[in-house]
């Protein structure tokens, strides 16, 4: 996808603030400092649309970024670090869970894990929850540039086994610094939102036109 326009829309604190234009949404989940903002900026070829917080765990809202007129990236609050009360963490958990379970326009969750380290307990819990609730998910292993290329296969294997991913399913290796995995990830996202495919009404009109053309062909 060629990104011609990308803009921050809103930091939503509840469903009443979610956009109502029915564009497909791709959510980003992961621990604080795993590189969600950097990944967004890399995908859209911008340096600072998505701001990296200097205080891990600070993001407490759903940050909506509109890409062209095609989709939203929805940056979820980072988990596993925020220095807040247990009550507040539980509120965030219910807030995020409600979004993931009930948002009709959600097409895919990108769960980001740091390739340098085995997935944390929070990473494992998130992946298990998404799979259990049939929420479409792709695991993106970030910061590949931080370790030698020769060690990539070992670290990918650790991510797969720690998360308990199905046989044949691989994390997508990514580096915002190198642009590694960018094109492959865009391909997956385009497929998830059916990018370039006709809308149902357009498809029906196309089928009708094709039938009419057949009828008019000489026998």
Automatic annotation (TrEMBL):
Region Disordered, residue ranges: 199-219
SUPFAM superfamilies from the UniProt entry: P-loop containing nucleoside triphosphate hydrolases
Acidic residues biased stretches: 199-210
Pfam family membership, one: MMR_HSR1
PROSITE patterns given in the database record: G_ENGB
Keyword Thylakoid (UniProt): no
Keyword terms: Cell cycle, Cell division, GTP-binding, Magnesium, Metal-binding, Nucleotide-binding, Septation
Annotated ranges, domain EngB-type G: 22-195
Cofactor annotation: Mg(2+)
Signal peptide feature range: none
Stated role: Necessary for normal cell division and for the maintenance of normal septation.
NCBIfam families the UniProt entry points to: GTPase_YsxC
Family in the record: Belongs to the TRAFAC class TrmE-Era-EngA-EngB-Septin-like GTPase superfamily. EngB GTPase family.
Name of the molecule in the record: Probable GTP-binding protein EngB
Biological source species: Paenibacillus phytorum
Lineage per the UniProt record: Bacteria, Bacillati, Bacillota, Bacilli, Bacillales
């Amino acid at each position: 996808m060629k990104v011609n326009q990308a803009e921050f829309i809103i930091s939503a604190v509840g469903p009443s603030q979610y956009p109502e234009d029915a564009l497909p949404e791709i959510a980003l989940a992961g621990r604080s400092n795993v590189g969600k903002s950097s990944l967004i900026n890399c995908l859209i070829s911008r340096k600072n649309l998505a701001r990296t917080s200097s205080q891990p765990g600070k993001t407490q809202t759903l940050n909506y970024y509109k890409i062209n007129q095609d989709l939203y990236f929805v940056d979820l609050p980072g988990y596993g670090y925020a220095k807040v009360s247990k009550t507040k963490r539980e509120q965030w958990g219910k807030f995020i869970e409600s979004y993931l379970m009930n948002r009709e326009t959600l097409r895919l969750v990108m769960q980001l894990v740091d390739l340098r380290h085995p997935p944390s307990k929070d990473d494992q819990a998130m992946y298990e929850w998404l799979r259990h609730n049939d929420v479409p998910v792709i695991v993106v292993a970030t910061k590949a540039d931080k370790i030698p290329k020769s060690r990539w296969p070992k670290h990918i294997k650790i991510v797969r086994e720690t998360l308990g991913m199905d046989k044949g399913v691989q994390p997508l290796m990514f580096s915002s610094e190198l642009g590694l995995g960018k094109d492959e990830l865009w391909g997956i996202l385009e497929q998830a939102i059916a990018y370039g495919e006709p809308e149902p009404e357009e498809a029906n009109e196309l089928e009708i036109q094709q039938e009419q053309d057949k009828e008019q062909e000489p026998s």
